[in-house]
Amino acid sequence: MKSTPRYKAVHQYIKKLIISGELVEGALLPSENELCERFQVTRPTVRQALTSLVQDGYIYKHHGKGSIVASQHKTLGLLSFKGFSEVLKETPEAVDTKVLEGPKVQDWPEDFFYPLSSKVLKQGCLFIKRLRLVNASPVMLEYTWLPNKNLTGFTEITFDRHSLFGTLGSKYHIEVSSVDQHIRAIVANGKTAPALDLEVGAPLLHIYRKYGTNQKDFNLYSSLFCNTDKYALSSEFK
Amino acid sequence: MKSTPRYKAVHQYIKKLIISGELVEGALLPSENELCERFQVTRPTVRQALTSLVQDGYIYKHHGKGSIVASQHKTLGLLSFKGFSEVLKETPEAVDTKVLEGPKVQDWPEDFFYPLSSKVLKQGCLFIKRLRLVNASPVMLEYTWLPNKNLTGFTEITFDRHSLFGTLGSKYHIEVSSVDQHIRAIVANGKTAPALDLEVGAPLLHIYRKYGTNQKDFNLYSSLFCNTDKYALSSEFK
DNA sequence: ATTTTTAACTTGTATATACAAGTTGTAGCT
DNA sequence: AGCTACAACTTGTATATACAAGTTAAAAAT
Lengths: 238, 238
Prior knowledge:
- By secondary structure, the first copy, chain A, is an alpha+beta fold.
- Chain A has seven helices and ten strands.
- In chain A, strands 4-5-6-9-8-7 form a six-stranded antiparallel beta sheet.
- In chain A, β1 and β2 form a beta hairpin.
- In chain A, 32% of the residues are buried.
- The model of chain A is unreliable at 73-83 (pLDDT under 50).
- At the A-B interface, α3, β7, β8 and β10 of A face α3, α4, β6, β7 and β9 of B.
- β10 of chain A pairs antiparallel with β6 (176-187) of chain B.
- Chain B binds a DNA duplex through residues 2, 5-7, 31-33, 41-45, 47-48, 50, 61-67, 117-119.
């Protein structure tokens, strides 16, 4: 049984201080040398802990000044093609998924937002409707459709516990390889407002996505409704 | 004039190989020790370069096996988030830019949405306010700030005719190299609604952007308000 | 009292070394 | 031919040291 690496212990200790509020936004952390003494580790070890705190968004560093607690401005890196599970493991808050419907076999919706071949239309689709929560508060309503294509046992899987992309990869050898998305601002309507605990008319970010995979004629489609009041969506390109 | 840190030179060299296609997805990079010999640096320096390549999504690491080129989803996406013309480049319609204010020298706004060093704050900023139109209809209100840093003649340029990024590149040798953005859905208020010919309360896509450049302490900042009624923003990652 | 300089402090970059833990290929055994 | 053990290789974690560059407070100069 391996022990926790020291840099991770330091990272987790500081993270806890920030999450608990003991270290508030804008607060200057002890210097690297002070942290070395406090944790009885060398500076590269401290730096590795701080680097990963920077990556996770808890702090930022200022050359010559120190490490400062970042605003716990909530962002979700959802503009990349990653799935929700993967993205949300980077946020400090408690995340949860609730399956509202499915997985179930059904017909493709009429006037589907991406064109479908008649063959795919005829086969019908698998549909999942999920609610994504952060700190028990709904932030995203997610509808997902995928072709009904002999995915044995798919409708028995509980996707509140399992990542869809992860499951497709490990169980069905379907790898998501591309995404095409369209983003708009809309207002919450009679369907989306109650699901997201919002007033009708509140602004929502809406994203249509078409995911390409390693299998020909097998694309996934999502329609996402995001309440960006507390959590902006973010992306970063270098 | 500082030289490029070694870890950054290694990072950029490998990044170029990946972008150019010389290193293809799934390819195993030379081992850390081999890279040390090849670049004549020590292993922590190589590791720092590799760590930042991991962070940027170009590679992933496998303990005991090596560093592997990741699928290039982000790489293509890098090139499509540069400026307005790129974002809307798919549209065949007539696009136009109207400068509403600036370029002018002013103070940085209070409570600016990205943290600024006291040095940059003291210098003030250059500000431009533009309206982007498609088929003579306003689709985006764009505020741009950049550090007031001896850009000779900048306030004389008419940015309705000239691309900001293009001008920075050709005239001032400032290349935009990264972007960090946060996206929300908001409602149009008393300032944004009239500029975009909308009712107060209409949904708007709001984007904060911080562009990194090749010059230290020279970042550009934008706040974009997009009417996505007719034109969704789209992105594609492969 | 104000401004400038300097020292002490901070983070950033880099070399050097060592051991731990995972991977893979080869040799030896059955 | 298949399995096991081991060596060589890989990345992961950590200590130790040194210099570069940014920040800030105190001291010195005006």
